[in-house]
Amino acid sequence: MSGGVSTGVAVSPDSGEHWAAEGAWEVAPGIHRIPLPLPMDGLKAVNVYVVAGEDGPTLIDGGWAIPVARELLDKCLRSIGYGFEDIQRFLVTHIHRDHYTLATVLGHEYGADVTLGLPERPGLDLLHAAGRGDYAGSNPFAGVLRSAGALEVAAAWELGRRVEDLPDPVDWAYPDTWLDGDVAIDVGRRTIDAVHTPGHTPGHYVYADRADGLLFAGDHVLPTITPSIGFTVPPEPDPLGHFMASLTKVRSLPDLRILPAHGPVAPSSHARVDELLAHHEERLDQCVASLRSRGATVAAVVATDLGWTRHERSYDELDLFNKGMAAMETKAHLDLLVARGQATCSETDEGVRYAVAD
Predict the structure, then answer these.
(1) In terms of C-beta density within 10 A (0-12 exposed, 13-18 middle, 19 or more buried), how is residue 197 classed?
(2) What is residue 137's predicted lDDT score, i.e. its pLDDT?
(3) Three-state DSSP class for 288?
């Protein structure tokens, strides 16, 4: 599902240009949005937000630690009067590499505090183990894919894992500060509420500036796309249930302007949360219909009955990576149906099989 406008063509009101256009765009007094490039086909950029403070800026997210992103961040910061040495803190929304890795590299080079949610620690531990070679030759997502019944995809992901793809410990250094629970953080003249919103990842945080009506939403509330659910290791029980509960939690905040990690600035957190919740309820209904039609089956089979991307592509039209993502996300929906008592599940050699509850 997406919002009303495709991410590929969406114009952001702060710039009047495509949301990924190069620049430091002022979204509010003392706050600039800097889109940094990503080396992937689907998402072209990640938004990094620069929040002014008396002693220097705080950055919300950091981007992917690739040379082109680092160079552009340096250029854009200098255009608004800052250098890397001025950064006081990185408030990172979650562990994914397009948010965390450049933050931790720059933070440890220049002495800026790097802050991350404590429930991301098991994921960092796993990445460090992989970087030491403990998981060499095996993809950590393969087990999740096998449990989703995507056996061929799991085998292909494992075969495609190369030594040069192992995590670099420099990119995944532990943060200086762990966030535990909901806390208020002073950022210059502002008080920003760090709100724990698990679902996309276990330790995802959004940052709410209630006084100025702003929500630094990370990947939790995206204006034109839905964040992936279930794409995390170690695997979490009921990630979609956590995500939808976190959406309800954000809905209980005042209606805020969305400053997302991907896509344009958007006017209403309440409106977008309502759309996201409705989308996932519709997907849950579609999963129930698939199980009623097919009988007991695995998530990867149910995924073939669903449409994918805003173009409603079939599962078979997806590339290998996105087939894996689709299978894991479908499993997350089926696990929530089990938690709600609408489905049952059982372990088999072909993966977890689900059926409609009697």
Answers:
(1) buried
(2) 47
(3) helix
Q: What are phi and psi of 25, to 5 degrees?
A: -100, 125
Tokens of 276: 């996201």
Cα separation of the two ends of the chain = 30
- State the pLDDT at residue 41: 64
Segment 172-191, tens digit of pLDDT: 999 999 999 999 999 989 99
What is the C-alpha separation between 258 and 265, in angstroms, rounded?
A: 6
In this predicted structure, which of 26-35, 48-57, 87-96, 129-138 has the lowest mean pLDDT?
Answer: 129-138
- β-partners of residue 116 are 178
* pLDDT band, residue 128 (cuts 50/70/90): confident
> Which pLDDT does position 158 carry in this prediction?
81
Contact between residue 228 and residue 200 where contact means Cβ atoms under 8 Å apart: yes
Residue ranges of E strands in 165-293: 177-179, 183-187, 190-196, 205-209, 214-218, 257-260
Q: Please name the residues in contact with 95: beta carbons below 8 A apart, sequence gap of 6 or more.
A: 116, 120, 123, 124, 201, 203
The answer to whether the beta carbons of residues 85 and 62 sit under 8 Å apart is: no
Nearest one of 252, 238, 112, 266 to 193, comparing CA atoms: 252
pLDDT digits (tens, 9 = 90+) for 287-307: 999 999 999 999 999 999 999
- Decide if 96 contacts 219 (C-beta within 8 A): yes
Spell out the domains of the chain, with CATH numbers in brackets.
11-134+165-276 (3.60.15.10), 284-356 (1.10.10)
